[in-house]
Amino acid sequence: MIFILPFNLKPMRTKLHLILLVDDDDACNFFHTHLIERLDCAEQVKTVANGLEALEFLKTPIDGHFPRPDVIFLDINMPKMNGWDFLEQYEHLSADQKAQMILIMLSTSFNSEDRDRALSNANVKDFANKYLNKDSLVYLLRKHFPDHFEALN
C-alpha cells in the first residue's frame, strides 16, 4: 500500500531532533513515519513495537548520551508492555533519560475514560486519536513546539 500525501507545510524554522513512535501496528508506524517525513519536521524518526522496547531505547546510551526524543507518540494497547504500564515505568527513569520530551498518547479508542486517564498523568501532555493526519500532527506540533514554526501570516 502506498500513501501519497499531497500537501506542503509552511517551513519549520527548526526541525525536531527525534520523534519516537511506540506502536505495535506496523501500518500505523509506516504511515506516521511517512507523514513526519513528508512534513520534514524531524531529523529522525524511531519506531518501536511496545513500551518495553521504548524503555530500552530511552535507557540505552548512544555515543555516551541517552537518546532524547522531542516527542513520544505512545499507543495504549500493545503486547508485552502497553502504554499504561510504560507510563508507570517511565516514572522511574532518571531525569537525564526523560529529558524534556513531550509525551502524547494515541489511541483508536473514543472512550473518554482513556482520555481522562491519560491526561491525568503528569507526563502526558496530550491525547489524540490515531491515525494522525496532516492537520492533527501540525496542530500537535504547533501546540507543543511553537518556536519551531515560522510565524503564521
Number of helices: 6
Level-2 CATH architecture: 3-Layer(aba) Sandwich
Assign the CATH class.
Answer: Alpha Beta
Indicate the percent of residues in helices: 25-40%
What are the segments in which pLDDT stays under 50 over at least 5 consecutive residues?
1-6
Structural class: alpha/beta
Strand order of the largest sheet: 2-1-3-4-5
The whole-angstrom Rg is: 15 Å
Describe the structure.
The protein has one domain: 3-Layer(aba) Sandwich (Rossmann fold), CATH 3.40.50. It has 153 residues and is an alpha/beta fold. It has a five-stranded parallel beta sheet. It starts with 15 loop residues before the first strand and ends in a 9-residue tail after the last helix. The longest helix is centred in the N-terminal third of the chain and has 14 residues, at 26-39. Helix 5 links the parallel strand 4 and strand 5. It has helices at 26-39, 51-59, 83-90, 95-98, 112-119, 134-144; strands at 16-22, 42-48, 71-75, 102-107, 124-129. Helix 2 packs parallel to helix 3 (83-90).
